[in-house]
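=== RUN LOG ===
request id: a7f3
mode: sequence -> structure
chains: 1
length: 497
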Amino acid sequence: MSEIRITYSGLVSLSFGLTRIITGLFFMIIITRVLVAEEFGTWTLISGLLFYGIILDPIIAYWATRETARKIDSGKTSVLGEGILSMGGIGIYILCVILVSPQTNVDYNVLLFAVILIPLMYLHKVLSSINLGWKPHVVSYSNFFADLAKIPLALLFVYYFEMGVVGVIISFFIGYIINDIALFWYAKEKIKNQIKKEFFQKWLKISWLPLYPRIAPLIGRSDVIIFSIITGSVIGLAYYSAALVIAGIVGYASAFSVGIYGKLLGEKKKDYLGHNITLQVYFMILFAGLSIIFAEFGLFALNPIYKIASLVVIILTIRIFFQTFNGLFSQVLTGIEDVDTIKESRFSDYIKSRLFVVPTIQLIQTISYMVILSFVLIFTNDTSTQLELVIWWSILAVCIEIPFTVFLATLIKKSVDVKIQKSRIAKYLITGIIVFGITFIILEQNITYNEKLIEFLPSLVIFVILSAFLYLIITIVIDSKIRNLCYSILNEIKKKK
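=== RESULT ===
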């Protein structure tokens, strides 16, 4: 029987997720206000290249969650193995920098300096994976501590010392150290066991299985590299990243379902899935509404030069809305798969399993996305502005995302009985449209753009809080599920006293 408490883990993770939205926005305001567009675009390119550097981490981290959830003592072996893999990741990252740097107008030395993040990212991944297998909510704790620390770090290195992108890299470096220390502290009970070569043998033997799902995200993250190479500029990346900061708020709703994967791995019971998915949609609607109506104001807060990319925020919000669904559906489908628990399983058995089928469809989707994106950029590059190219890029990303969501939903329907209460979701959606529609009308009439953040932010924050509060109050009144959720929160608070 799994020890994971789905609702408790979800509420704790969501609570810290909300605070991370605040700390994350403060951090981004610092770097977007201080860095010029070229520098911010450079950081976006580095983020894309780093994904190549951590391509090897699933070989071990993939199994860390599954084995921890099933009470298999492989923690210490996982941490050691991930450290070894990080050396390969460093080599891959350096190779990518050598290949990409000549094709862009970015400083080679700055790209190369970011290699210091690779080992810490590997350690972060494996420690997070271990914790997700038994106490998933602690990952939110550690992420919060790291995000909180990055604010003064950015003020020091980016604003005060004016170190530019290098200052951002150093801030992330120290943030990862804090994050990894916290994760290690929470996971220490699971890494007291012995190092066993049998685990290495198993992981290496079927290393293709965890690496295969990484191919699609790896190709998908190459869109920033393709954009910079074809256009020869990183200005568009700056617009895209700024928009993604606001639109990315929707993704924080996934924190409510952080415990699902480990729970499914640890026990056969699945009757909580419908309830959990319904509540996650509730928070997705809330965050999507906030992202859309505050798109232009949020971009202005980051930096007035990005205000013109508000349409990109709206489009990317829709994309991330479906991406969040895809992440949840993928967790459910791979969580109920038990082919890896059967010792007699052969290569053909893995090929037929959901562990292979789900990433295969995602790979087809991603390859289609990259091919079409390349053609669109090539044929429109000479006749379009950087912003127009980013808009086309965002629209294409949405169009490619939706079919994958439909496929995963169909696969779930065939694989497990999930009772999603559509009438409740309809109530949440209608409430959101009314609340955020009225808020948007009032916003346009009452908020004045002012480049002085001390004068602009307070009124903006007040409107954000009021609109979220109104959505919450109305749904509490009209829906018993949300009332019960609030009662659960109050009961947990009382237990802590």
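=== NOTES ===
The mean pLDDT is 89.
The chain has one domain: 6-420.
=== END ===
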